Amino acid sequence: MLRIALLFLALLALPLKAATVTNLYQAQVALPDTDRQSEQAARKQALEQVLIKVSGQSNIVENEIVAKALGSSNQYVSQFSYANRDGQRTLLLTFDRSRIRTLLTQANSTFWSELRPSVLVWLVEDANRSRNIIWDQSSNDLANRIKDDGDRRGVPVLIPIGDFEDVTAISTPDIWGGFVQPIATASQRYQPQAVLVVRARQQDNEQVTLNWQLYSGNVEQLGRNKVAPSEGRNSGETATSVAQMIDSVADILAAKYAVQLGGDTSGQLAVVVENIQSSKDFFTLERMITNLTSVAAVNAYRIQGDRVEFTVQLLSTEDVFQRELSQDSRLSAVTTPVTEQYEPAPQPEGMIRATDVSASGEPSVQPADQVNPVAGEASGVDVSDTEQLNSDAPVETKPAKQAAVFSWSDTTSAAL
């Protein structure tokens, strides 16, 4: 394979600018009694929680296949133990990842991977004729409930820390009035993938009214008023209102980031990425594509100068793959998708499998000693013996459909 010549230069790929949720397949539920019936009910409740987290759908139990599976929850459990939470005996369950994924595929449901957008919450509480911004260390009941419900739905929640930089960047009237520019400016330091603005009006008897706006996407676009928010209002008992708000937020984000399982897929695509300046760029990019939920397998088809072409086998649809790919800020599209099919010319022994297409559309090849797997690093990599072809070696065929051409930009890698 083409990547063999670069392997010894590889560094660990940098993660996407998102949070990794580690407890998607775990649930802890109250166990009010020790009898078998109570434990079975707890197992069913735990499986329901996990399916909601992993699918991103709060109404997943309405699916007929899922509803049937809830009746036999034991087959999905991989580990269990007993614990205590706030003096209440609980059952802690871990579910099998592959079986959960198979169930969601059978149900033609969605799947939301562990890499999830972090949500920065600007919360102003109106109570006792006073309005205050709630900071992370305030031990505020509303803020704690938002964090707990975020954990329940697998949504990484950030509460601003409230240091000097925060309090000088934003004020209570900015948040209560929904002024986008100061909210965007104050949010920049946290680099969230979504911003949730909450105005909470406390009432008597543990009642609350929550008016909220969710901005999902780039914070810079938020500052330029290019992101229209999703809005909602929840009123009633505090715990219920917060849970309903977070359910709505999670459903909105899942609709954007989760991928559809089951049904028809688009098969194999070619993805071309330009401006690969180092071996670190190459392996970072390869790992990033491999880790996409919609991708089954990735192979470097050819490397030519600073241009790399991958063949990608999909688990989901092409639209889902394109959407996932576009969410990484290091990639920018440089051309519209094209449809083309051709075979690279057979190459004699001593040639590396690296072809290119000239402006006339004819395939061209370069001798192995002229091909640089990664621009600017040829002097450090000997590729003279890399993947030579025999006279009877099979000729690879390029995938029929090319998804798009992208340009790569990784400032961290460039600095190295």
TrEMBL record:
**Region labeled Disordered — which residues?**
356-402
Keyword line: Signal
Superkingdom per UniProt: Bacteria
InterPro entries in alphabetical order:
DUF2066
Signal peptide start and end residues: 1-18
- Supply the Pfam families for this chain: DUF2066 (PF09839)
Polar residues bias: start-end ranges: 357-369
Q: Which residue windows are coiled coil?
A: none
The name under which this protein is listed is DUF2066 domain-containing protein
Species source reads: Photobacterium pectinilyticum
